[in-house]
């Protein structure tokens, strides 16, 4: 058996190298559908430098919404050069009292860097149901592991700004409140599964656009 180990090792190396990518990049071709592995590659002749540049994070988002927060994303749908590279970015603007409700990213972990203001941020462990949260100040960084419920809100008396990075070109986002109260489940069902009374469910459905 020992004599075969070096052979198996060499074969495994050859196999891995033969299946490695020989492309420098794979700029997203938005004319074709997205799939589990991302977008198909744009033909190299159609690639330009603009595919690798995105200017959208330089402008503050509109924080006049209900949550007084704005997330400006630089995901693959806005930034085609990210396709297949396993990373993306976003800008988070939080007005005074602004909040990003509890949500998850199925496709990647997140790291946040506070540029201005103070932000309380945290996540909840799925294994022990332990909450890890802290007030972050200018220059602080916090990481949120993939798929875990997490949140951010402004705890100061000035607007807050943060830059976010994720290790996926298309990490996705699922807001718990929107999923629970923005659907067409009958209120009676939501009341049963969420342990909430009728008045609370009706109010939240009205806020998040759900129907009875």
Question: How is the secondary structure organized here?
Answer:
Layout: H1 4-18, E1 69-74, E2 88-94, E3 99-104, E4 110-116, E5 119-124, E6 131-136, E7 141-144, E8 150-154, E9 160-166, E10 174-175, H2 176-181, H3 187-194, H4 198-208
Antiparallel strand pairs: 1-2, 2-9, 3-8, 3-10, 4-7, 4-9, 5-6, 5-8
Classified by CATH, the class of the largest domain is Mainly Beta
- DSSP, total strands: 10
User: Tell me, what's the shape?
Assistant: globular
Number of helices: 4
Question: Could you state the oligomeric state of the chains shown?
Answer: single chain
CATH superfamily of the largest domain: Jelly Rolls
Q: Please mark out the parts with pLDDT under 50 across 5 or more consecutive residues, or reply none.
A: 13-20
Describe this structure in words.
With 212 residues, this protein is of the alpha+beta class. It folds into two domains: 49-172, Jelly Rolls (Sandwich); 179-208, no CATH class. It contains four helices and ten strands; from the N terminus they run αββββββββββααα. It has helices spanning 4-18, 176-181, 187-194, 198-208; strands spanning 69-74, 88-94, 99-104, 110-116, 119-124, 131-136, 141-144, 150-154, 160-166, 174-175. Strand 5 (119-124) and strand 6 (131-136) form a beta hairpin. Helix 3 packs across helix 4. The longest helix is centred in the first third of the chain and has 15 residues, at 4-18. It starts with a helix and ends with a helix.
């Amino acid at each position: 058996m020992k004599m075969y180990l070096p052979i198996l090792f060499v074969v495994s190396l050859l196999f891995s190298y033969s299946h490695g990518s020989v492309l420098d990049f794979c700029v997203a071709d938005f004319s074709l559908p997205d799939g589990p592995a991302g977008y198909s590659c744009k033909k190299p002749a159609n690639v330009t430098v603009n595919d690798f540049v995105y200017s959208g994070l330089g402008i503050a988002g509109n924080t006049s919404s209900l949550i007084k927060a704005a997330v400006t994303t630089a995901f693959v749908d806005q930034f085609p050069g990210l396709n297949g590279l396993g990373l993306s970015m976003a800008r988070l603007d939080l007005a005074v009292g602004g909040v990003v409700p509890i949500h998850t990213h199925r496709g990647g972990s997140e790291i946040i860097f506070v540029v201005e203001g103070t932000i309380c941020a945290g996540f909840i462990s799925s294994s022990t149901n332990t909450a890890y949260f802290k007030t972050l100040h200018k220059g602080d960084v916090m990481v949120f592991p993939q798929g875990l419920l997490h949140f951010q809100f402004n705890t100061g008396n000035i607007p807050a700004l943060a830059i976010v990075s994720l290790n996926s070109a298309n990490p996705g986002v699922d807001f718990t409140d929107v999923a629970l109260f923005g659907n067409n489940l009958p209120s009676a069902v939501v009341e049963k599964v969420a342990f909430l009374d009728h008045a609370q469910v009706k109010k939240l459905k009205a806020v998040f656009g759900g129907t009875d």
